Amino acid sequence: MTLAVLIIGLLVLRGLGALGVRRFATWAASGAHALAAMLLMTASAHFVPAGVTVMPTHADLVAMVPPFVPAPSAMVYATGVLELLGAIGLVVTRTRRAAGLCLATLFVLLLPANVYAALADVPFHGEAASPLWQRIPEQLLYIGIALAAALSAPVRDTADEPRPAEATA
To answer: How far apart are CA 11 and CA 32, in angstroms?
Structure first.
């Protein structure tokens, strides 16, 4: 489902860019916004109580945490907050570079949980664990889109801007 949200979002946003919506004029900008939409969906699962049946829950994500990680429940909440902050950062042009780099790092750090869940056959939302051959490329795609968003974000040149002391002189 996450991959579908990402790809459909990317295609719709890029289509809007082709129709003249400047915010989505590039694949990288469209990818940043599509990744943000996907992260809003995935981050919400970090906070969903176990009784909810329409989507993965906090308990599903806690089960994926490898045994060597301390305080699995707290880590799931923390990564949910980081995903939400990253999503916000991706849609704000000024923070896109930092958000993309931080999210790429987060996705790398989350990779052991995906490997553990696949190798330990941890069910997710009542379904069989996704195989490793599927999880790794998907995670690499997220890392790639986050990096593309970061590296293509406009850099603000502050060399020509007056400094506060010069502005009043």
So the answer is: 12
pTM: 0.85
* Total domains, the chain: 1
Strand ranges, E, within the chain? none
Chain centroid to Cα 91, Å, comes to 12
The CB density around residue 149, as the number of other CB atoms within 10 Å, is 29
Q: Is residue 47 part of a domain?
A: yes
Cα–Cα distance between 67 and 122 in angstroms, integer? 12
- Hey, is 96 helix, strand or coil? helix
| Domain membership of residue 24 as a residue range | 2-155
Give the tens place of pLDDT for each residue, 88-142.
999 999 999 999 999 999 999 999 998 998 888 888 877 787 888 888 999 999 9
What's the gap between Cα 81 and its chain centre? 11
